[in-house]
Amino acid sequence: MNWIFINGEYVRQEDAKISIYDHSFLFGDGIFEGIRAYSGNVFRLREHVLRLFDSAKALLLPVPYTVEQIENIVLETLSRNKLETAYIRLILTRGEGGGFSLDPFICKDPQFICITVAFDAFPEKYYNSGIEIVTVPTRRNRADVLSPQVKSLNYLNNVLVKIEAINAGVQDGLMLNTEGFVAEGTTQNVFFVKNGIICTPPCSQGALEGITRNAVMELAAGMGITVKEQTVTRHDIYTADEVFMTGTAAEIIGVVKVDGRVIGNGTPGEYTRRLYQTYKMFVLGSEIHTAQH
Question: Which terms are listed as keywords in the entry (predicted)?
């Protein structure tokens, strides 16, 4: 069984436990990060850890370790599990609050957890043939109510979208904000290509500032491709030459049908394929953090 880091110790998976009175269990009061390791190379580990600290600061949630300590915990957990290609989940809970009070300031012993597992995302056929998505009824939480930049353990907004996508028989859902503009997918950012220009919704429209999103924008710019952040409508998506989604788990995956409308020629487009190939090379060689230490 896997080794799990939890609150200062490495324990076997079956022994990794938190209190049922932890605010993360009672109220979803905690944060997380999802990270990928490729052949011993942990992709943008520092950026993920810094984003964890940003989420914690927004929630006034104390982090019991430094950035460098968390990086070392990630590498040690991978090493103990003999994993070089893996998915990494960092979790920070508020801790036990002594009953059912909402008051976060009476909580004690925040739990920091690192889980590493062998991981593959979508089946290979989806990268070759693309996926289908639908616009879902559930809207993105308003940013002035619950910021999408906080990766909270209260992920119900996204869970509802995933339910609706599965019930529709497709691989993902397209989430709109309360004004009807495109925000993102269940766990992925959305891009479209039109006349050789790549566009994506700005984070102000309800999109997470994804680590993969930023990497793709940097790679595209380095390839001489114009990238724009702009308000995106469903009409933009329907009439795009290409649509693709990005995320830590899925990486870059082409979307070939949206709400029954075929995108482009119905296969992942040239820009999507080029970016995916470039990204796969990039993640294998761009970082200094390795799981071998």
Answer: Amino-acid biosynthesis, Aminotransferase, Branched-chain amino acid biosynthesis, Pyridoxal phosphate, Transferase
Residue with tokens 């990005």: 246
pLDDT at 292 exceeding the cut of 60: no
Active-site position among 57, 82, 151, 194: 151
Are 84 and 164 members of one domain?
no
pLDDT digits (tens, 9 = 90+) for 75-102: 999 999 999 999 999 999 999 987 899 9
151 tagged catalytic = yes
Whether residue 249 is found in the same domain as residue 135 = yes
Helices marked H in 85-231: 124-129, 156-167, 211-222
Q: Is the pTM of this model over 0.90?
A: yes
pLDDT at 123: 85
* Contacts with 77 (C-beta within 8 Å, 6 or more apart), sequence order: 3, 4, 5, 10, 88, 114, 115, 116
Tokens representing residue 131 in the block: 């996926």
Q: Assess whether 85 and 225 both reside in one domain.
A: no
Same domain, 93 and 131: no
Of 83, 117, 151, the position where a domain reaches its end is: 117
